[in-house]
Amino acid sequence: MASLNITTAFSTSFHFLHSLRQCRNLQTALSPIVSSSYLPTSYITQKQIEIPTSPEKQSPPVQEGLGAFQKLPMVMPSIDLYASALRKSKRVQPTKGIANIAKRERNRGAKQLDAFMKELALPLKGYMESFPRKKLLHPYERSLIDLTLGDGKYEEVLGKVDVLRKKVQSVGKEHASLCAKALSKKEAEERLSEGVEKLELVFQQQGGAVDDLLTIAKVLRAMPVVDLEMPTLCLVGAPNVGKSSLVRILSTGKPEICNYPFTTRGILMGHIVLNYQRFQVTDTPGLLRRCDEDRNNLEKLTLAVLTHLPTAVLYVHDLTGECGTSPSDQFQIYKEMKERFKDYLWIDAVSKCDLLGGSPVMYAKEDRSSDDAEIIKYRERGPDESIHVSVKTEQGLNELKNKVKEVLSSEMEKIQSGEKTDQSVATC
């Protein structure tokens, strides 16, 4: 009879779980749950929860290297977290040897509420400790977080998860204590039911933070992995100049190729294998002629890549007029980027050369009154020493590949010689 009453106390959660299951079905249809192991509750022991590390014993925070996103834990959807915690808490039995019915039921109720609270709070605690603090991330990955998720979104969601954890602990402890003080079997059952309902309400109101964290983990884990020790070729240029087509030819990357601005909506990473050595190739969103304050997040993503990653820049120019950005504007963007990142190795490629006619392309809105010899020359042939290529006719592609090979191989030799120098210094 006692077991039946305790089961009845938990039945108040049936409606909430049913609605959550419906939400889960919808969520799964829109964004499939990643197939992997969730962070186990045993990730943090009870001792770690109850006895925090003293400030003297805490080690100073260490800055993360690149690859922190691939180490993120698998976040359990809120419906699974709640259902799992409720299911496990119902299995908890009262301490053996209690003969008095009232004492036995209040012991059972207090232990089940305490277990319910911990099964909810411990995974949340694990997430808080496993997701890196943004200020300790590599600058490149900090930029990716802000530009991909929005400024402050990462910290906001983690903050909400921590608020949920603290609320669950507070409510669980409060109602477990009330249940332990019950004077009768009926009162113990009522306190148990009230505690479950209160924790249910907390998750109804604030559990969405867990699903937000799940989404963030999926987005960040899908970011391309970058190796700072490997030479990187970064393709840059205005939108729709043909960068993605060249990435497909030069590397293993397979970007989407369409004729509209900002086809590349993120960073695509591919690899080149030359003489049994691997090199990285990145395709970036196009840049428009405007000041940094007016750039959208896609353009800022390109600037972040240029700031933190490249060994060499392959700048792609389109003088045919097809890309939507005039040669004059492309020239100004090019001059600005080359001045800003002048310490990098540069390769210039003029794409779609099979479409170039005898006379340079002019846009009707362009003002030619202020043209100088440099811009006139650029409209006709592009920058000095640029390689003219055509994906359609394959003109210039072998020359471009050889130039890329020469630049990246040279940079790899510098990296390797630098490592040998560092090792010899360390030995001394």
From TrEMBL:
Domain NOG1 N-terminal helical, chain residue ranges per copy: 69-227
InterPro entries recorded: G_FEOB_dom (IPR030389), GTP-bd (IPR006073), NOG1_N (IPR041623), NOG1_Rossman_fold_dom (IPR010674), P-loop_NTPase (IPR027417)
Chain ranges of the Nucleolar GTP-binding protein 1 Rossman-fold domain: 298-354
Stretches assigned to coiled coil: none
Entry's transmembrane regions: none
Pfam families for the chain: FeoB_N (PF02421), NOG1 (PF06858), NOG1_N (PF17835)
Originating species: Arabidopsis thaliana (Mouse-ear cress)
Domain FeoB-type G: start-end pairs: 232-289
Molecular functions (GO terms): GTP binding; hydrolase activity
Assigned keywords, A-Z: GTP-binding, Hydrolase, Nucleotide-binding
The name this protein goes by in its record: P-loop containing nucleoside triphosphate hydrolases superfamily protein
